[in-house]
Amino acid sequence: MVFHVITIFPEFFRGPFDYGVVARAAQAGKLRIEIHNLRDWTGDRHKTVDDRPFGGGEGMVLKPEPIFHAVESILPDRNEQDRVILLSPQGRLFDQREAVRLSRYRRLVLICGRYEGVDERVAEHLADEELSIGDYVLSGGELAAAVVIDAVARLVEGVLGNEQSALRESFQDPEAPALLDYPQYTRPAEFRGWKAPEVLLSGNHEEIRRWRRQAALAKTARMRPELLEKLRN
Ligand code: ADE
Question: Which CATH superfamily is domain 2-153 in?
Answer without folding.
Answer: SPOUT methyltransferase, trefoil knot domain (3.40.1280.10)
